[in-house]
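> forwarded from #structure-qc
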């Protein structure tokens, strides 16, 4: 009996010891398990924020060459096909307000700078913003000295006449209205002749003939009253004819034919090609064709099919290249500084030019090819620069740059970006918003009120806890 109890006790204790050993094993990692877990864990790597002065190094910067946009001046809207009777421009010629672009069937096509296309013929009595735009354009050319009141009257008509005369062309006229002036002139002459005959029939006044005696009253001419009525009627006829002549002359003042006007921008317009002398051009009577001809400052290629052929092809916009430079190089890319420009595709295509403008500091955006913050530097080139539209150009400053920047610096790999902007992750604190001031040597000098020297910024691994500090 005792032996049986001892055996039972021994078995129970053994099972309990095995259970305890198994349970303890579940809470204790083996060396192999710890090694596997460590191999799968991504370590957090941090570096301290430093104060740095980035060295000056003026590097070449790249940008795309823009030759401007190409637009077409189609033939004027005529009732019948026209022909080029004089070629007045050659490729490369500059175009400005008041320039004759071409001559079609003996009539000019004149470039004018207006804020919008002139959309109708302007005749005496016309009113509206298009008249005011014409008056402004003529004033700039020195042909109009009146007020831009939007009323097409004698002053505006005289300015239009002065423009055509100065360009060497006859002033526009309406033949029917000119004939009406001739008719009114003859009518006035007839009225004046009739009035003079009536005055003669009335006879001299009483102070010339003397006063008739009482005995002679019955013998006095009985037609005196009738002559007075005739003279009065003649005077009225002369007055009416005079007014009609004045009205006819007003109506016949020189108009502005919209078919002879082409709207152009204020600057940056050069000729690419022009129709040769003798080129036959199709007529275009539709209002749409006329509008296309008049507005050559519209979209590229606008009106290319109007009228059956191109009259003149223009390049609108100044040839230029715009590059983005960082704070580090800004001192070497100042307005007026000389730069060397060469094409990537052709190293022999090299020109020198001066910087036209430098923008304010800009953050990266969709228009920034480099994807970096900085300043947009624009260089205007000669119209005959040896580059094609869209060429990649390398722009190199010919001046030494100053020190890039000095301040708190973090490695470029520490910079992070999201929809809220650029930031770094600081150990123990989390996100701190920053503004990149300059980059170089693998570092970025940043401006951040929530960052201090020796702060640990994360360059690898998950961001440590600590909450968001979006200062």
């Amino acid at each position: 009996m005792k032996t049986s109890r001892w055996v039972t006790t021994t078995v129970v204790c053994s099972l309990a010891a095995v259970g305890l050993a198994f349970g303890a094993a579940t809470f204790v990692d083996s060396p192999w398990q710890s090694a596997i877990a460590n191999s799968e864990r991504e370590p957090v790597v941090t570096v301290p924020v430093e104060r740095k002065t980035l060295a000056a190094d003026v590097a070449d910067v790249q940008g795309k060459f823009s030759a401007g946009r190409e637009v077409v001046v189609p033939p004027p809207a005529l009732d019948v096909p026209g022909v080029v009777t004089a070629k007045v421009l050659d490729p490369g010629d500059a175009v400005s307000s008041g320039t004759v672009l071409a001559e079609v069937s003996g009539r000019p096509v004149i470039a004018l700078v207006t804020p919008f296309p002139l959309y109708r013929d302007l005749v005496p009595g016309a009113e509206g913003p298009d008249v005011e735009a014409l008056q402004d354009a003529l004033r700039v050319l020195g042909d109009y000295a009146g007020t831009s009141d939007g009323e097409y009257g004698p002053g505006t008509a005289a300015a239009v006449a002065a423009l055509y005369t100065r360009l060497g062309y006859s002033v526009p006229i309406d033949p029917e209205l000119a004939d009406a002036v001739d008719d009114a002139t003859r009518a006035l002459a007839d009225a004046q002749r009739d009035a003079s005959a009536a005055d003669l029939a009335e006879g001299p006044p009483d102070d010339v003939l003397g006063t008739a005696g009482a005995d002679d009253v019955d013998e006095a001419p009985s037609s005196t009253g009738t002559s007075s009525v005739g003279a009065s009627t003649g005077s009225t006829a002369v007055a009416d004819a005079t007014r009609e002549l004045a009205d006819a002359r007003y109506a016949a003042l020189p108009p502005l034919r919209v078919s002879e006007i082409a709207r152009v921008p204020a600057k940056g317009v050069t000729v690419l090609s022009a129709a040769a002398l003798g080129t036959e051009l199709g007529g275009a009577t539709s209002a749409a064709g006329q509008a296309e001809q008049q507005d050559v400052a519209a979209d590229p290629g606008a009106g290319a099919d109007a009228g059956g052929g191109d009259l003149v092809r223009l390049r609108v916009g100044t040839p230029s290249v715009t590059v983005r430079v960082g704070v580090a190089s800004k001192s070497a890319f100042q307005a007026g500084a000389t730069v060397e420009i060469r094409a990537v595709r052709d190293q022999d295509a090299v020109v020198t030019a001066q910087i036209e403008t430098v923008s304010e500091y800009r953050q990266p955006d969709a228009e920034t090819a480099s994807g970096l913050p900085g300043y947009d530097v624009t260089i205007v080139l000669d119209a005959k620069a040896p580059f094609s539209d869209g060429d990649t150009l390398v722009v190199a400053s010919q001046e030494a740059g100053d020190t890039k920047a000095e301040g708190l610096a973090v490695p470029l790999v520490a910079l992070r970006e999201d929809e809220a902007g650029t930031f770094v992750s600081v150990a123990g604190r989390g996100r701190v918003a920053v503004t990149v001031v300059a980059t170089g040597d693998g570092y970025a000098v940043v401006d951040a009120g929530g960052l201090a020297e020796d702060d640990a910024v994360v360059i690898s691994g998950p961001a440590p806890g600590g909450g968001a500090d979006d200062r």
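QC bot note: Confidence is low (pLDDT under 50) at residues 208-226, 284-294, 298-308, 466-471. The helical segments are 2-26, 31-40, 129-140, 154-167, 175-202, 206-209, 224-251, 287-294.
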